[in-house]
Amino acid sequence: MAAVSSMRKMYGLCFHAVRQTAGRKASRLLQHRTFRVTAVHQQQPFDSSLEKPQFPGASAEFVDHLEFIQPNVISGIPIYRVMDRQGKIVNPSEDPQLSKETVLNFYQKMTLLNTMDRILYESQRQGRISFYMTNYGEEGTHVGSAAALDPNDLVFGQYREAGVLMYRGFPLDLFMAQCYANADDLGKGRQMPVHYGSRDLNFVTISSPLATQLPQAAGAAYALKRENENRAVICYFGEGAASEGDAHAGLNFSATLECPLIFFCRNNGYAISTPTNEQYRGDGIAARGPGYGMLSIRVDGNDVFAVYNATKEARRRAVAENQPFLIEAMTYRIGHHSTSDDSSAYRSVDEVNYWDKQDHPISRLRHYMTARGWWSEDDERSWRKQSRKTVMEAFERAEKRLKPNPELLFTDVYQEMTPNLEKQRESLWRHVQQYKEHYPLDLYDKYQH
């Protein structure tokens, strides 16, 4: 009996130590006031003599009356902002105090992206490229978040993050080359337009299926954690993608594996033609964070400074503490979902005009700069003229370039071409030679066969 009693005491001490370790880990979630989140209470040491739940899956109390949790008893998660719609700083202590040069760079990148969008959108309408997606209204989420990252941080985008890549230094010529699938395209013409990627800039190539990037980002962040590098991963997605099963997998993996990862949700109001009230019934996407055990914040996505502050703090803590963060940036998709969409079929012109004229991230930042004497009407006219000229020059160069060499259809999969691929390659060239009048090979780069 003494041996049994001793074993019980040892078991209790070990279990208590494990509980204390788990408690210390959970307490890290409560150390910073910037992110207001409802934390799970620290689970108490195991004591079978107490009439309290001992289930390992959650910490709670027993109740003796039947009551379902109401979804709307708590007011909505507040939206963090720094500037109002007129570009005035609401709380001076939240002003990031960025230099004039930095703010001007923000503005020029946002407007350059806007100019590129207009020209490439018109190009698709003229039949010069097959497809395009604009970023109208979401420029603040791109530039604000990109500026807060380290250049070595890894980016997983969806298909509306061109501004992130532009801020990192991706040249206009390569944007154009990708959309035109010409010989300069880093992807060698294998992807549809707007599916950018750059190994040099740590920007993972975009894929079309929704939410596949979330579990991939979790895996990449876990790898960085294991390598003990001072790097983070940021993963962008829309509120529609948050309804996919892959979103749950990515969020849950990152939380349980404690990965240095920032989930950045662009809540722009519509998942193609599906409005948010048909997409979910809860309080947006940030409300899901506590359920996964991660710190969350909702920001004004049309306020580039609010996006910058939130991403910078999330990035700092994600690396320092090895834990994921969820940022929900509230914004509005002013343009059509893509060139395959006509948004006038599911929303009013007045609604779109409000966001375009009254609450736009570019005009808000311009108000801020104008109030400080950093920008004038002359500056605006000069920059708009210069930026359009720069984009048009890149556009014209891209149109004149040849298409990628057809041989590239069979490369980059295996180090040495397999017999099966060799047969496919030979079959292709037999077909091309037989019907050469339908295949203008002079339009392709360095054709050799």
Automatic annotation (TrEMBL):
Protein's UniProt name? 2-oxoisovalerate dehydrogenase subunit alpha
Q: What is its main location?
A: mitochondrion
Q: Which GO terms describe its cellular component?
A: mitochondrial matrix
Name the species this protein comes from: Acanthochromis polyacanthus
Q: Tell me a GO biological process for this protein.
A: branched-chain amino acid catabolic process
Manganese listed as a keyword = no
Q: Which UniProt keywords apply?
A: Metal-binding, Mitochondrion, Oxidoreductase, Potassium, Thiamine pyrophosphate, Transit peptide
How is the subunit organization of this protein annotated in UniProt? Heterotetramer of 2 alpha/BCKDHA and 2 beta chains/BCKDHB that forms the branched-chain alpha-keto acid decarboxylase (E1) component of the BCKD complex. The branched-chain alpha-ketoacid dehydrogenase is a large complex composed of three major building blocks E1, E2 and E3. It is organized around E2, a 24-meric cubic core composed of DBT, to which are associated 6 to 12 copies of E1, and approximately 6 copies of the dehydrogenase E3, a DLD dimer. Interacts with PPM1K.
The lineage is:
Eukaryota, Metazoa, Chordata, Craniata, Vertebrata
Q: Where is the Dehydrogenase E1 component domain?
A: 108-407
Q: Where can this protein be found?
A: Mitochondrion matrix
Q: Which cofactor does it need?
A: thiamine diphosphate
Q: What does this protein do?
A: Together with BCKDHB forms the heterotetrameric E1 subunit of the mitochondrial branched-chain alpha-ketoacid dehydrogenase (BCKD) complex. The BCKD complex catalyzes the multi-step oxidative decarboxylation of alpha-ketoacids derived from the branched-chain amino-acids valine, leucine and isoleucine producing CO2 and acyl-CoA which is subsequently utilized to produce energy. The E1 subunit catalyzes the first step with the decarboxylation of the alpha-ketoacid forming an enzyme-product intermediate.
Family to which the UniProt record says this protein belongs: Belongs to the BCKDHA family.
